[in-house]
Amino acid sequence: MTNTDSRTEFDAKAAETGANATRYFQEKAKAVGETDAARVHAIATDALSAFHDVIAKHQVTYEEYDALKAWIIRVGEDGEWPLFLDVFIEHAVEASVNADRRGSKGSIEGPFYVPGAPELGAEGTMPMRDDEPGTPLDFGGTVTDLDGDPLAGATVELWHCDDNGYYSQFAPGLPEWNLRGTFTTGADGRYLAHTIQPSPYQIPHDGATGAFIRTAGLHAWRPAHLHLKVVAPEHQLITTQLYFEAGDYLDSDVAAAVKPELVLSPTAKADGSGNEVTYDFILDPA
Asked: Checking CA distances to 248, which of 33, 203, 258, 281 falls within 20 to 30 Å?
């Protein structure tokens, strides 16, 4: 995907971002098998029953019902279902799926993951512009099993927004793989990424999801975070996000995805060239 667009990331629109998120999700969904009919029946019945209870509790009017239908149609037209569901629903699914995990804590994937990020070895610099804004960050650690033994050949996929709060492939004007990379641990299980520290950002809010947020009296902000997928042979994949101590919106994340175990505490590098932080991943067996 070569970016020939003359616009900049500041020209990003929710509908365009939503369309990209929907396209990537559709590719992902091609690999999803059929869902068990009994599970569909049980979940759908309970979900509809809960929705009916909400309608009765709040005595929903036909005007409100019609407003809901109009909004649902707009979400589809804007391509924002991946955005809306990942922001407001995914954290509950993630908590359920990872309830029995003994290793590192998971968090939501979100709508901005793209597979196939460049391979950077055990240590490397994330793809970025020559004048990439922001504070340089050295982010590294060790991937181990539950016994603390290092895992060789573990892959650490890392992606995050830039200092302006935008993701490559979801905003115009950014290089295709900007701030996206894949690291592979050596025999010592270590990885080290040279990148920049991301900023808090507002989720795309000029479309249907933003209309919902405004009407419900919410805010659209997410705290600054790194996204990661970590896996090793014969071990379970962990998808997570890491946040920054004392950062804005840690206590009011619109996606409700922050966990205390996932908060980083970077320190200034001795040479004054930016910040550094270590985070070790512990993987459960497959």
From this structure: 281
Q: Does residue 2 belong to any structural domain of this protein?
A: no
- Quick check: is 5 in a domain? no
* Residue among 19, 10, 1 at smallest CA distance from 173: 10
CA–CA dist 166, 122 (Å, integer):
26
Residues 6+ apart with CB under 8 A from 10: 164
Alpha helix (H) residue ranges in the chain: 14-29, 37-58, 62-77, 81-88, 90-97, 208-215
If one counts the domains in the chain, the total is 1
CB 225 within 8 A of CB 170: no
pLDDT digits (tens, 9 = 90+) for 197-240: 999 999 989 999 999 999 999 999 999 999 999 999 999 999 99
**Could you tell me if residue 120 is inside a domain?**
yes
